[in-house]
Amino acid sequence: DTEVTQTPKHLVMGMTNKKSLKCEQHMGHRAMYWYKQKAKKPPELMFVYSYEKLSINESVPSRFSPECPNSSLLNLHLHALQPEDSALYLCASSQGLSNEQYFGPGTRLTVT
Amino acid sequence: AQSVTQLGSHVSVSEGALVLLRCNYSSSVPPYLFWYVQYPNQGLQLLLKYTSAATLVKGINGFEAEFKKSETSFHLTKPSAHMSDAAEYFCAVSFPGSSGDKLTFGTGTRLAVRP
Q1: Does the beta carbon of A106 lie under 8 angstroms from any beta carbon of chain B?
Q2: A112 - beta bridge partners?
Q3: pLDDT per residue rounded down to tens, chain B (115 residues)
């Protein structure tokens, strides 16, 4: 099973709201990722967790706050977002040196 | 610098024709190479990967790719296009022993299939 699940599928939030995106994998993968993808662009890496510890933060603004409660779960907490943060947010996981990543279906976020 | 380049942001083929999507990489060490497909409003699906075993790699949905070190290429092919192949395709690369767990993506190629 190579499934990564993400909830919700769609999210509309105002600039003063606080919301969270959730990602789950049950493949025993050691690494989990958050990406942001704008239309007609490749995914942009935001954060990487390895063995439940934050290993890479690609200089993401503090209004995005990742959390890894356990080896299967990854959250992305959102607060005071801007309209330009509207995008598809993708979660992925991987295991092993070749680093093939398995992606979830994404959360389509709209900030109004 | 290590990078990946996809030539052609848009490719259009007729149904039943050969599909060829180009990917070149730049690296001082042998890379791991991947092709992903993305359908509208969906996540990325792994089509195939090269990890230094066989240079001709077969993937899902009839796609295959050949790693050519002399040309630093990893082009994706399919002998006969189907309407359901219309999607965005991303070539990606990771480099063993560097950059931690990062994948570097190409800019993508949108494949259109004409009836």
Answers
A1: yes
A2: none
A3: 678 999 999 999 999 999 999 999 998 777 889 999 999 889 999 999 998 778 899 999 999 999 999 999 999 999 999 999 999 999 999 876 655 568 889 999 999 999 9
